[in-house]
Amino acid sequence: MHLSPDGLIRLTLDQLLSTSLEHLVSGVDQDASPPFTNACGTQTVLSGYTEWISANDPTISIGWDWHLQTAVTGVRWVRVGLPRSNLMLTHDTGHDTSWHGNLEILGTVVDALAWREILPDVVAARYA
Amino acid sequence: MNTWQGDLLGMADTACTVDAVFEKIERASSALGFEFCAYGLRLPTPISSPRTIMLSNYPQAWQARYASQGYLATDPTVAHGRQSQTPLVWTHAVFAQTPLLWEESQSAGLRFGWAQSSLDAVGVGGMLSLARSSEPLTATELATQEVKMRWLVNISHLALSRLFVSEWVKESQPDLTSREVEVLKWTADGKSSGEIADLLSISENTVNFHIKNSVVKLRTANRTAAVVRAAMLGLLN
User: Fold this and answer.
1) Percent of residues, chain B, with pLDDT higher than 90
2) What is the ipTM metric for this complex?
3) Rounded CA separation B56/B113 (Å)
4) Which of A18, A41, A116 sits opposite B199 (nearest CB)?
5) Which strands, in side-by-side order, build the sheet including B112-119?
6) Which of residues 24-53 of A touch B (CB under 8 A)?
């Protein structure tokens, strides 16, 4: 794992999955979808962002957007779109993954993190 | 990438057979220190009897015993997976209500295990169980390996659901209009046609027209079944 001159940290997927990532910050988006209405029963969307980092140096950062989705079993926290990161995953040969492919794979890593388990408490505490 | 992670990523992107996918899951499980693995996939419909697909390298005798005793219905790890996507480590306490199942699985060599379920946007549930005959899972092992195990759950679901679900989704995704979805959402919230008409500022006849079209498109018998089916398919999210 090293910081490259282009500002990206290069590492393999196995190295990333072996790295402990911790929650840094999360927030809820302001409801900015017009038209605004105060009508009773109006449907709303709850969405937000979160960023997780590594404790080691250079610091890995992965951030992504989420929204709350109603499901048969209750409310689900769902990742929206691809993550943002200062990481570039490399093949075992040392070659870079394509940027889009990189973000797609980082998405599968995000989905494996325990963020859905801690975010309800983190968000509730921030806006309490 | 020729690591087990690279193998799994490749299979999520390309066409593979079910056997080939499961072979890679077995390889990954082995690399993570588990000699046994099982993957169960559950399609959300038909609701009265959802289709379940089981893939496993558990001992044949145990697989037969598990099926003949109908343990799927009482297995506490499966029950947990239906309620929560939080990983579960097998313990005496987890199996407290099913001592015979616990005792028999121990005898079959499935002594220490870990399981996690996943649920995707179209309501397809999956659960990966990893097990071994010796060495309990320690806190240190979980601290260093659990993200890899959880990643294996996700990527396995992605690869297997692509194989099993694509046809099912194609068959069951009706072309609902946004208005029909909106009306179904309010119906799901228990609103009557008259109440929905007031909420959307349209006539009650128009509401009923949208509901009738939805019932036909969803191939259901009435509005209740249409709402349930639409919800199960994730169309009301």
Assistant:
1) 61
2) 0.87
3) 14
4) A41
5) B52-56, B36-42, B125-132, B112-119, B88-89
6) 41, 43
